[in-house]
């Protein structure tokens, strides 16, 4: 598998080709604010390496999904939402609302998050 996809929006953000409001910039993981926030805290956490979804990244067995989740939790702490609660969402497939086919975790917090979600 290629580590990047030249047609992928999130690969372009990770490379700096497309601007984003960066929250965290790590060696393997990048986090930035969603351009259409659904909560006061809405950050996307992505790996720099291209995987179409969480299942494919988990299947690679490199610990990348673990790293994305750890980073999301750390950002929730920094954003002040860890103690009150936050949601991590991984959409997989267009039927689930995935529009960019690059693994990404939506970190949402700062307001009540009802259940079921949608």
Summarize the structure in words.
The chain is α+β, with helices and mostly antiparallel strands. It has a single domain, classed as HIT family, subunit A (2-Layer Sandwich), CATH 3.30.428.10. It contains 3 helices and 5 strands. The chain has a 5-stranded antiparallel sheet with strand order 1-2-3-5-4, covered by helices on one side. A hairpin with a 7-residue loop joins strand 2 (29-33) and strand 3. It is globular, with a radius of gyration of 14 Å. It starts with 8 loop residues before the first helix and ends in a 9-residue tail after the last strand. The model has no long low-confidence stretch (mean pLDDT 95). InterPro entries: Histidine_triad_HIT, HIT-like, HIT-like_sf. A motif (Histidine triad motif) lies at residues 102-106. Residues 9-118 form the HIT domain. This is Histidine triad nucleotide-binding protein. It comes from Streptomonospora arabica.
What's a quick, concise take on this entry?
With 118 residues, the protein is an alpha+beta fold.
Descriptive terms for the model:
118 residues, alpha+beta, HIT family, subunit A, 5-stranded antiparallel β-sheet, 5 strands, globular
Structural class: alpha+beta
CATH class: Alpha Beta
Number of helices: 3
Architecture per CATH nomenclature, i.e. the level-2 architecture: 2-Layer Sandwich
Mean pLDDT: 95
Unreliable residue runs: none
Query: How helix-rich are the residues, as a percent range?
Result: 10-25%
CATH 4th-level superfamily: HIT-like
The proportion of residues in beta strands is 15-25%
Largest sheet: 5 strands, antiparallel
Q: N-to-C terminal Cα separation, in Å?
A: 33 Å
Domain count, please report it. Answer: 1
What is the overall silhouette?
globular
How do the strands line up in the largest sheet? 1-2-3-5-4
Number of strands: 5
């Amino acid at each position: 598998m290629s580590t990047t996809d030249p047609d992928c929006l999130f690969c372009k953000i990770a490379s700096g080709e497309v601007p984003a409001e960066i929250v965290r910039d790590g060696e393997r993981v990048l986090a930035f604010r969603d351009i259409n926030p659904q909560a006061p805290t809405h950050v996307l956490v992505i790996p720099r390496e291209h995987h179409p979804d969480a299942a494919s990244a988990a299947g690679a067995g490199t610990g990348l999904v673990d790293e994305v989740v750890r980073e999301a939790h750390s950002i929730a702490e920094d954003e002040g939402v860890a103690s009150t609660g936050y949601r991590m969402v991984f959409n997989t497939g267009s039927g689930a609302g995935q529009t960019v086919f690059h693994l990404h975790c939506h970190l949402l917090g700062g307001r009540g998050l009802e259940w079921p979600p949608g």
